[in-house]
Every structure is written in C-alpha cells, then in structure tokens.
Amino acid sequence: MVAKVQVLPSSTPAPKAAVPTRRLRSLDKQLLMQRKTSLLNSTVSNSETPLTADLNGTTFLRPHLLQLAPYTPIEPFEVLSQKLGRAPEEIVKLDANENPYGPPPEVREALGNVRFPHIYPDPESRALRAALSEWAGVPMEHILVGCGADELIDLIMRCVLDPGDAILNCPPTFGMYSFDAAVNDARVISVTRNPDFSLDVDGIVRAVKEHSPKVVFLTSPNNPDGGMMSEEELLRVLDLPVLVVLDEAYVEFSEAPSRAAWVASRPNLVVLRTFSKMAALAGVRVGYGFFPLDMIQYLWSKQPYNVSALAEVAACAALSNKAYLLDVKARLVEERDRLHKLLQGVDFLEPYPTSSNFILCKVTGGRDALALKQALMERGVMVRHYASPGLENCVRISVGKPEQTDLLMAALAGC
C-alpha cells in the first residue's frame, strides 16, 4: 500500500505548489536581496534621493511570511451579536467547542479578589504548576504553563525546528500545527488519515523514514472528528526517531487515561492539555504541557511573563473545585450521547462516533453544508462548517446544554 504522504512548503496554504520548498525559499531570499541591492544602487546614483524612498513595511519582513495565509478564527460573541442582530443570550453558540456551563464559581470570586494586579506575575507559575501536579499526578518539574496550549505548540516549534526542517501532520486535524509550522518556516509532511479518521500508522512510519521530520503532532481525541488513537498506535509512533507531541485538549471527555505520566520515561514524548474545555476558561487562555526533564530545562528560556496573574489565579481556582469539573464533564458526556442519537434521526446528517464534546456530521441527501450553516445562523444557531480534503460537506456541532440541543434540533427541522 502506498502511503498517503504529502509534502507542503511551509508558507503555502494549499497543496498546489509545484516548486520545491528549498527553491521557493531561495527565490524569496534572491528577491529580497535584489530589492535591497536596487535600493543601494539608486541611492549611490542619486545622492539627492532619500535613503528610505523605496522602503515599505514588507521590506523588513522575513520573506516566507509574505506568503503566509492567516489563521481563520471563530468570530467572537460581540461580533456575532452585531452581525445577527441578536443579543448574546439569544445565540446558540455551538461552533467552537466551548464549555457552556462556565467555570466553577470559585473562579469569579478569585478574580474579584486578586491582590496584586499591579505586580508582574510569577514567571514560573509555581502555584499553578503545583496544583496541576496534584491534579495530574506528575511532578511539577515536568510541567510548563502557557498562554493557551497554542503558545506551547509554537514554543516547541521555535525551540526544535530550524528553517527548512519538517513536522509530520495527520490531517484532517487541528489547523494550528500546520499554521505554526508555516510561521516558523518549516515544511509540513502530511500523512492523511483513513476515511474513518483513524491514523495511517504505516504511512507515518514510512514518512518518518523517508522525510526525517523532527516532530509529529498527534491529537487524541482528534479535532474535528472526536476519534481516539489506541495505545498500540501511540507506542508504534513513539518507537520512531521523532519528537511526538500528543495533544490531549479533549481527553477529559473520553474514557481513555491521559498519557501525561509517560513523559518521565519517554524522552521523545510531550503531552499538551488546556483549561479551555472542561474547565471552561477559553477566554482566559491557559494551557499546559508535560515535558521530559532534559527538554524542559531549555524551554524555560521563554518569555518570562507569558501567563498573567489573572490567568494563574483563575486556573488555580478552577482546579480547587474538582467536584464541579467532574459534574460538568458528566453532564456534557450525557448530553453528547443524547445529541448524537437525535442527529442520527435527521435524514440529511450522518454523525460520526466521538469521544469529545463535539460531533462531526456529514451533510447528505444533496444538501450543501455551507448553506446549512448559513440557514442555522439565520436562526441564531452557530455551527462550524468544513470543506477541506477529508471533510468535504461537513459540519461540526459542539455539545451544549440540553436546552441548546433542543433549539438546535428545532432549527434543523426548519432548514
């Protein structure tokens, strides 16, 4: 069987580039040098011409960034409210996998009693790392905290990758891996998932041997389908000579255990987690990772105040009420199962199995997924639309409260 491997230049968002990556990078540098040489020559030939006459903002940018396609985020509540002409309370927001129950009440109380907002925060986030150590059962020396797990993804790439190095990605999956690779001038080796969204582990093995990527990013449960990878699959990838970054942003909603403790015995494993999902702190931006000790000592050469005092206080307060977090998890899992059964009864939707707080659906029966998204939005219900390879004509629906599920189903009935 031929591995489904695709090699993408770092700054090219679509698989249409016919020019090799190294040649693209060489051409970028040549163009930049020609621009600078032309500027110097014109200055020499005409001493009255200002030195800055031919400069513009792009003159100073790294060439590969000029080709970078921006990341497309979800629209914020305030913008949606204005666009739809609805109060935020009237919008059923099921497009970003946020936790509709909000954080434990201790979070609001703690934020209202922050003692020293005028003082810089602890650059090592010691209080939060100690709380995370108790929560996860992993020594705090293995733990690094960031401004969301996204910051840690970028930090790993900046510390591991030289320009032109490669990461291995397994699409369809979280888009931040390929985006951050492009920002860091890295190539992307893509091993496409199987039609059921399971990993093509044989393809990963072949791609590592052929292309020698430095990092492979794996997500379990995977976003946007919610599928899990098996322990056997993870162990096979860990046996390869590559750094394995396991993103467990949604693992709390599954029955699988976290692999965070494995970092103590696996020198090529990093495990990432977030407070955005089960702890409902998406707007606060707190993520954390578990790293091998001989790696984490160098990652501490990061920006010193990347986690604000407010973020640390909020995260510690959330962890203080374990009963609340587990209750919210149970409610969302129960509602996920109810929603999945209801979606199975919609004649133009085929929901995929999921172990997360969202459900990916194939839009069928000749219906168009984008048109369905627009129709739902007109009714005040937001879902995520996909059209990329492997996700053609799909929508992803976040799990909400029971009353939000009822509003969604009523809207679907009217579409």
TrEMBL record:
<dbReference type="InterPro" id="IPR015424">
    <property type="entry name" value="PyrdxlP-dep_Trfase"/>
</dbReference>
<dbReference type="GO" id="GO:0000105">
    <property type="term" value="P:L-histidine biosynthetic process"/>
</dbReference>
<dbReference type="GO" id="GO:0004400">
    <property type="term" value="F:histidinol-phosphate transaminase activity"/>
</dbReference>
<keyword id="KW-0368">Histidine biosynthesis</keyword>
<dbReference type="Pfam" id="PF00155">
    <property type="entry name" value="Aminotran_1_2"/>
</dbReference>
<dbReference type="GO" id="GO:0030170">
    <property type="term" value="F:pyridoxal phosphate binding"/>
</dbReference>
<dbReference type="InterPro" id="IPR015421">
    <property type="entry name" value="PyrdxlP-dep_Trfase_major"/>
</dbReference>
<keyword id="KW-0032">Aminotransferase</keyword>
<dbReference type="InterPro" id="IPR005861">
    <property type="entry name" value="HisP_aminotrans"/>
</dbReference>
<comment type="pathway">
    <text>Amino-acid biosynthesis; L-histidine biosynthesis; L-histidine from 5-phospho-alpha-D-ribose 1-diphosphate: step 7/9.</text>
</comment>
<dbReference type="InterPro" id="IPR004839">
    <property type="entry name" value="Aminotransferase_I/II_large"/>
</dbReference>
<feature type="domain" description="Aminotransferase class I/classII large">
    <location>
        <begin position="90"/>
        <end position="412"/>
    </location>
</feature>
<keyword id="KW-0663">Pyridoxal phosphate</keyword>
<keyword id="KW-0028">Amino-acid biosynthesis</keyword>
<keyword id="KW-0808">Transferase</keyword>
<protein>
    <recommendedName>
        <fullName>histidinol-phosphate transaminase</fullName>
        <ecNumber>2.6.1.9</ecNumber>
    </recommendedName>
</protein>
<dbReference type="InterPro" id="IPR015422">
    <property type="entry name" value="PyrdxlP-dep_Trfase_small"/>
</dbReference>
